[in-house]
Structures are given as structure tokens and as C-alpha cells.
């Protein structure tokens, strides 16, 4: 579904982590996105893993209450060789999802490769490349860039979600172009 020109929406993007959890917030109006905020939830001073999870829930709930996002885009944990790291990351992601669910914010999950591909065109892009591309796309001043790449990863999840909003609904079956046009008259302009 193509966003309407007057449609306004707030997207919260989250990059789950157990030491630093990144987040980015976009304001979307029609086909334009603008960064509202980005930052990190710094969990490094907590040694108890359950206190970290509680802090994630509390801080993310506060961010949701402050910015009132319409949707949440969250990066899915990648499957690595370290099972303990995967478990910790999965718990952090689950708590972030629970905070969004508590506030009735719809959630969409994206694989890291999909986010990198959407932002840079390269699924193997580095965090620095993703941050640099977001800085150019969203016209973010150097002074607004944070030293933590986790924040730009959260913003990347939000921007990836924004890009996906303009895509046709692929769950519909079409018998051809004529059928597509008949079922999507709002997508055809000037005919």
C-alpha cells in the first residue's frame, strides 16, 4: 500500500542488545521520512542479566510513551555460533517486543541482511557504511551522530520499515498487469 500524501506516522526502530540497545525514531509524512531522535539504552553498568531485561522494558516503555510510535521495526537476532550470545540477544528482543505489545504498538521484524540491503544495497555492509548512508539519506548533521553505531542500527530498522511501506501488497494474487491495475487503482497516476 502506498502511503497517502497526508498520512503521518511515527516509526520506532530497535536494534536489540544486552550491553547497548539502539533505537531510532522516524516521522513519516507521505513519502518522506525525517529522523526525530536516536540513541542507546546503555546497560553496561548492570551485571545482573535480569536487571538488564527490566531496564530494557522500562526504558523502551518510556520511549514509547514519549514518542507514541504507530509501529515498531525490530532487528531479528542473527544466528551465530555462540549459543549463549543468541540466548541473551533473543531475551533482549523478546522484552523489547513485550514493551511494544504492552502499548499496543504493531511490530515487524527484519533480518539484519534485509536492513543492510535496504539501506546500502549490500547485505554485507558494515555498521559504519549503514550509518554513513543514513546520514546522507536523512541529512543528519555530524553533530547529531552518536558515537554508538547501535543507535544508527536502530534507525536503520525504522528506515527499512519505512521503505517497505511503499511496496505493493505481495499477499494478493494477480493474474497479470491488467488484474493488478484493477485491484490497485490508487497506484496508477495520470492514466
Description:
Mg(2+) 1 binds at residues 15, 150. It catalyses: Endonucleolytic cleavage at a junction such as a reciprocal single-stranded crossover between two homologous DNA duplexes (Holliday junction). Its main location: cytoplasm. The protein has helices at 49-67, 83-102, 112-120, 127-137, 149-165, 177-183; strands spanning 8-15, 20-29, 32-42, 71-75, 107-110. The longest helix is centred in the middle third of the chain and has 20 residues, at 83-102. A five-stranded mixed β-sheet has the order 3-2-1-4-5. The chain has one domain (8-187): Ribonuclease H-like superfamily/Ribonuclease H (Nucleotidyltransferase, domain 5, 2-Layer Sandwich). With 191 residues, it is α/β, with parallel strands linked by helices. It is built from six helices and five strands; from the N terminus they run E-E-E-H-E-H-E-H-H-H-H. The two termini are 19 Å apart. It is globular, with a radius of gyration of 18 Å.
Q: What is the number of E strands?
A: 5
Helix-strand makeup class: alpha/beta
Mean of pLDDT: 87
- End-to-end gap: 19 Å
Q: Please, what is the CATH homologous superfamily? A: Ribonuclease H-like superfamily/Ribonuclease H
* CATH class identity: Alpha Beta
Strand portion: 15-25%
Q: Helices, strands, pairings?
A:
Layout: E1 8-15, E2 20-29, E3 32-42, H1 49-67, E4 71-75, H2 83-102, E5 107-110, H3 112-120, H4 127-137, H5 149-165, H6 177-183
Parallel strand pairs: 1-4, 4-5
Antiparallel strand pairs: 1-2, 2-3
Helix pairs in contact: 1-2, 3-5, 4-5
EC number: 3.1.21.10
Main location: cytoplasm
Keywords: Cytoplasm, DNA damage, DNA recombination, DNA repair, DNA-binding, Endonuclease, Hydrolase, Magnesium, Metal-binding, Nuclease
Amino acid at each position: 500500500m502506498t502511503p497517502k500524501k497526508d498520512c503521518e506516522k511515527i516509526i520506532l526502530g530497535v536494534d536489540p542488545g544486552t550491553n547497548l540497545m539502539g533505537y531510532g525514531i522516524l516521522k513519516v509524512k507521505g513519502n518522506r521520512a525525517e529522523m526525530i531522535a536516536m540513541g542507546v539504552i546503555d546497560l553496561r553498568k548492570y551485571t545482573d542479566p535480569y536487571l538488564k531485561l527490566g531496564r530494557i522494558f522500562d526504558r523502551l516503555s518510556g520511549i514509547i510513551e514519549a514518542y507514541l510510535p504507530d509501529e515498531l521495526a525490530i532487528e531479528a537476532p542473527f544466528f551465530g555460533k555462540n549459543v549463549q550470545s543468541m540466548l541473551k540477544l533473543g531475551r533482549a528482543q523478546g522484552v523489547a517486543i513485550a514493551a511494544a505489545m504492552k502499548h499496543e504498538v504493531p511490530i515487524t521484524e527484519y533480518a539484519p541482511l534485509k536492513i543492510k540491503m535496504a539501506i546500502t544495497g549490500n547485505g554485507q555492509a558494515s555498521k559504519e557504511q549503514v550509518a554513513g548512508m543514513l546520514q546522507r539519506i536523512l541529512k543528519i548533521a555530524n553533530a547529531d551522530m552518536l558515537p554508538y553505531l547501535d543507535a544508527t542500527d536502530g534507525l536503520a530498522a525504522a528506515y527499512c520499515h519505512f521503505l517497505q511501506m511503499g511496496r505493493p501488497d505481495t499477499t494478493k494474487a494477480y493474474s497479470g498487469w491488467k488484474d493488478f491495475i484493477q485491484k490497485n487503482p490508487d497506484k496508477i497516476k495520470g492514466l
